[in-house]
C-alpha cells in the first residue's frame, strides 16, 4: 500500500490535462542516533520552548508563526491564511518546456517523487503524455508548490509512471571554476590513458544500487552499540592504510591492469538472471526425460 500522496493536483501540457498525485520516491531507514545527556546524571536533556522574558514554558501546540519585519516587531500569519494562500502551481504542474534527457545536469536534481494518475479517468491521458515523452526522450520542466515553497521541477518517464525531481535554484549551486582552477589543461599521455581505459573495462558492470548503497558506517556503529549494551569491549574494525601518492604512474597503471586481470569479472545482474533462467529451463527439459533427470540429480 503506497503512502499518502504528498501533493494532489493537475498535470497540464498545453490544453491537455489530467489529475495526478505525487509520492516521495525515497524514505528514511532506522539509523543509530544519539541523544544529549547530562554527563553527571546521564539523564536526557530536553529542549523545551521557553519565553525568554517570562521564563515560562510554552506548549508547542500553542505556538504561532510570526515574521520579524523590524527589530522585535512581528506580523502574525495564521495557519488558515497559509492554507488559503495559493498560486497556479499550488494546484497545477504546467509543463512549459521540454528538453532532451541527456541535457539534464544532475547537479540541479534535488528531491525525487513518483507521479501517478489520479483515478481511472486520468489513466489514458497520463499514459499518452508519458509515452510521447518517452518516444521523444525528453523531460518536462515546470513548477509546483510543496511545503510553502514553489519549486522548479523536471518530470520524466520512469517505469510505468513518471519521476518528478525538484530543482535546486541556480544560486544554491556553486561555480566549479574556483574548485578546478588548479587542474592542468595540457594533453595527457595517450598510452597511460589507454591503460586506464583497459582497467575500467575490466571493472565494468551494471548499476546495482544494493551493492553500494549499504551504509557500512551505520553497520559498524550498530555493532559497537550492541557490544557496549552487552558489556563487551568494542571491537573496532581495521581499515586499509591510506593510499600513498603515486610516484610512477605508468608502473602503477601496469600493476593495476595485471591485478584486475587476475580477478574474475563480477557477474552482472543480467548475466546472473540469464543463468538462473537457463538452469530452470534445463531442469524443466530434464523433467521430460527421466533418464536425463536422474543424471542431473545424482
Structural features, described:
The chain has 298 residues and is an alpha+beta fold. It has ten helices and ten strands. Helix content is 34%, strand content 23%. The chain has an eight-stranded mixed sheet. A hairpin with a 2-residue loop joins strand 3 and strand 4. Helix 5 runs parallel beside helix 8. The longest helix is centred in the C-terminal third of the chain and has 19 residues. The chain is extended, with a radius of gyration of 29 Å.
Give unreliable regions as ranges. 283-298
- Radius of gyration, Cα only, in angstroms? 29 Å
Q: Give the DSSP E fraction (strand runs of 2 or more residues).
A: 15-25%
Shape: extended
Summary, kept brief:
The protein is an alpha+beta fold and 298 residues long. It has helices at 79-84, 88-91, 120-136, 177-180, 190-202, 209-212, 216-229, 249-261, 269-287, 290-297; strands at residues 7-13, 16-24, 65-70, 73-77, 92-94, 97-100, 109-117, 138-146, 149-158, 161-167. It is built from 10 helices and 10 strands.
Amino acid at each position: 500500500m503506497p503512502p499518502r500522496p504528498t501533493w494532489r493536483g493537475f498535470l497540464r501540457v498545453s490544453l491537455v490535462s489530467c489529475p495526478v498525485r505525487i509520492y516521495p520516491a525515497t524514505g528514511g531507514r532506522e539509523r543509530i542516533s544519539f541523544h544529549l545527556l547530562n554527563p553527571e546524571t546521564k539523564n536526557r536533556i530536553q529542549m523545551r520552548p521557553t519565553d525568554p522574558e517570562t521564563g515560562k514554558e510554552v506548549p508547542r501546540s500553542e505556538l504561532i508563526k510570526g515574521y520579524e519585519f523590524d527589530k522585535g516587531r512581528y506580523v502574525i500569519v495564521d495557519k488558515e491564511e497559509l492554507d488559503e494562500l495559493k498560486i497556479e502551481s499550488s494546484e497545477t504542474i504546467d509543463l512549459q518546456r521540454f528538453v532532451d534527457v541527456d541535457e539534464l545536469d544532475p547537479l540541479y536534481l534535488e528531491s525525487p517523487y513518483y507521479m501517478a494518475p489520479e483515478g481511472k479517468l486520468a489513466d489514458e491521458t497520463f499514459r499518452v503524455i508519458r509515452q510521447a515523452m518517452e518516444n521523444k526522450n525528453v523531460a518536462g520542466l515546470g513548477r509546483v508548490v510543496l511545503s510553502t515553497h514553489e519549486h522548479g521541477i523536471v518530470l520524466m518517464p520512469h517505469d510505468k509512471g513518471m519521476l518528478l525531481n525538484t530543482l535546486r535554484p541556480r544560486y544554491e549551486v556553486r561555480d566549479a571554476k574556483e574548485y578546478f582552477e588548479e587542474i592542468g589543461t595540457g594533453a595527457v599521455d595517450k598510452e597511460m590513458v589507454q591503460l586506464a581505459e583497459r582497467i575500467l573495462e575490466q571493472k565494468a558492470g551494471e548499476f546495482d544500487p544494493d551493492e553500494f548503497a549499504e551504509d557500512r558506517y551505520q553497520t559498524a556503529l550498530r555493532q559497537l552499540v550492541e557490544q557496549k549494551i552487552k558489556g563487551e569491549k568494542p571491537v573496532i574494525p581495521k581499515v586499509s592504510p591510506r593510499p600513498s601518492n603515486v610516484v610512477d604512474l605508468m608502473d602503477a597503471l601496469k600493476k593495476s591492469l595485471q591485478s584486475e586481470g587476475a580477478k574474475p569479472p563480477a557477474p552482472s545482474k543480467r548475466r546472473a538472471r540469464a543463468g538462473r533462467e537457463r538452469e530452470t529451463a534445463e531442469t524443466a527439459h530434464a523433467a521430460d526425460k527421466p533418464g536425463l533427470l536422474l543424471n542431473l540429480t545424482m
